[in-house]
């Protein structure tokens, strides 16, 4: 350097000399001296080579802020090429400088959007950037932005152009699908339900992509992703104690409509698909759809169809039917027709079991009787009477205490009390039916001996009174004649 002239013609030669000295001191880990020499080189010749070496110095000094700023400075160099940006991104990755690597790869993506030609495929840059972001547990929002951006580019370019051809394209498609799915699972566990819903929605989109020689996407994973996305939307609503707007409700219903379309399109394979999805997830689909339909006017018939589909599916779980039935029986968005259907289906399933759970059976019978009373009034409706008779038939032959005693007492007392109104209005036959039902049930219940004696005494007295009134009426008739 001592023998290089200081004239204008020698500026390039002197700049090259400073850059060589910078490299030498970098190799010796004398970073401050290296920075001094590259600053001198940049004053003489502000080229991309000088800017890149300065970037390397900042990386070695672990000054991520300065290195990130230097990446932007590189972009403004007149002789800039994307090769230097790719090199900077890989250098930062090798040095484990995640913020710098992420910034570098993000700038590279901007060049793809601008139509610049870059030797590395765009899908690889997206994948690398997502992998880098995944190393930071607090970068879920940033990951979501990149995944959304990748999906938008795929839609813009087409799956073949974005992912690639053949087996390579399928592997890339599967990687993005699984990555979005895993991010959804992770954020769901962390109760970040808003992010979770978006990740699962994007997973469904990637799983539905068709690559070479495929006729359809992964329908099972599409269904699972959509169901979990809507479940997360509802979970987020409850977690944040807010209410979904009507537009959000309709968007969620549209996602579930895709699930329903897939299920109904697999003619003859419906139960196989449901079994593959999993009965728990299929219940989640049914429950979410039922909940969302209840928020819109005129959707009662759709709710009923949902529960019929759930009840008729192979391997339907009585616990699921019970939960739907209880939810439908109460609350501001109740649907008594759905509740009756679900509870009756649950009751049938429980009674068909080798060892029925009579506590749950009793709960269902009580709820069905209450529903019948609400819908039809406290009258001798045949359907309500049939429920009491069904309860009586269930108790016949059971061991003492096998049917919950308190529930059996409730059945007996409510059946007996239902005779009160018919007695007052003179509907004698109706009153007799209810009193007889109450008495028969009381005879099945241990501990109701006193009640049973009083009932029998009242029935006998009531019969004598009715017979006496009948005799008086007949006598009056004879006198008149």
Automatic annotation (TrEMBL):
Biological process, per Gene Ontology: regulation of synaptonemal complex assembly
Highest taxon above the source species: Eukaryota
Record InterPro entries: Spo22/ZIP4
PANTHER family on file: SPORULATION-SPECIFIC PROTEIN 22
Name of protein: Testis-expressed sequence 11 protein
Protein species of origin: Cuscuta epithymum
